[in-house]
Every structure is written in C-alpha cells, then in structure tokens.
Design goal:
Elements (H helix, E strand, L loop, with lengths): L6 H4 L2 E5 L5 H8 L6 E8 L3 E2 L2 E10 L1 H18 L5 E7 L1 E4 L3 E9 L2 H18 L2 E7 L4 E4 L17
Parallel strand pairs: 1-5
Antiparallel strand pairs: 2-7, 3-4, 4-6, 4-8, 5-7, 8-9
Length: 163
C-alpha cells in the first residue's frame, strides 16, 4: 500500500462556504508544474429536475464531517492514483439560483486519464458520502429535500457510507 502524504504536504484544498465559487481560484489551486492535466468538474443549478421546473436550490452541510469526507476522498484518490499532485474540493451552501455553481472539483495529475478518473471518483463519492443536503424549490411553490441516503450509483445500487 503506497504511503499517502498528509494534506499539509499535498497542497490539497477543501472548502465549504456561502460565497460564490470561483473556477479561476480552483484551477489555480490545482495547478502544479508536475501536472500534465487538470480535470475540473463544475456542478451547477439546472432549471429542471426530472421534467419539473426548479426555482432555486438550498444547500446545507455538516461542515466538520463534510471536510473530513473530502480528506478521505483525497486519501482514497492518492491510494488509487498515487501520482496525483493536487486535489481541490469546494462546495457551496445556502440558496443558489439557476446557473450558479454548487460544487467545484479539480484534480491535477501527470496524465489526463488519471485526472479524469480521479475527478469523477471525487464527485461520485462526495455525492454519496458527504453530509451535504439540498432542498429543491420548485416553480409551483413546493419543495423537496434530497439527502445523501437517496443517492445511487450508475447501476442502481446504494453506495456504502464509510464514516
């Protein structure tokens, strides 16, 4: 099993906050001269979910545990893709309008294939394990909470929680 460096030595960056997220900031935090690729995933508030018109989304998080999960994701990425140079995970909380960014993940690696794979792993794992909840506010005035317990992977099976 490879040795995983501590977050202090990796220059990884994890953040949860109310302020709008910055693509430029996240990209810069992932940048490293050893990178051959930076894969960046931006999750945005869309205007429809399952054909139903969305007015806005509201996110809440249990921040200390969410940051802990972000660190676990980083550790797992470094075990699976040991050449990873930088991992950045930023998530927004509060009310977000259509088109606003709710989550940004960037992974810097020597090669694009590992950067893409690690970035996808990060967002898929975050969605299933981080204690972050969203409330969808519909155009008709109704709303629905969506929790991590409701997430499923691409095969329709629930993802395990490793808390």
């Amino acid at each position: 099993m490879p040795i995983v460096p501590s977050p202090a030595l990796t220059n990884d960056h994890f953040h949860i906050g109310f302020a709008p997220l910055s693509l430029d900031e996240v990209y810069q935090l992932a940048d490293d001269p050893r990178n051959g690729a930076i894969a960046l995933m931006s999750g945005t508030v869309r205007q429809q979910t399952d054909g139903k018109a969305v007015r806005y989304l509201e996110y809440q998080a249990y921040e200390p545990m969410a940051i802990h999960i972000f660190r676990q994701i980083s550790d797992q990425i470094r075990q699976q893709w040991p050449d990873t140079n930088r991992i950045v995970i930023h998530h927004r909380v509060g009310s977000l309008e259509i088109g606003e960014i709710s989550v940004l993940i960037a992974v810097g690696c020597p090669h694009r294939s590992e950067a893409f794979a690690a970035c996808r792993y990060a967002i898929d794992t975050l969605k299933h394990q981080a204690p972050i909840w969203k409330k969808e506010h519909w155009l008709d005035g109704s709303s629905t909470w969506v929790s991590i317990g409701a997430c499923e992977d691409n095969h329709g099976t629930e993802m395990p929680l490793n808390l």
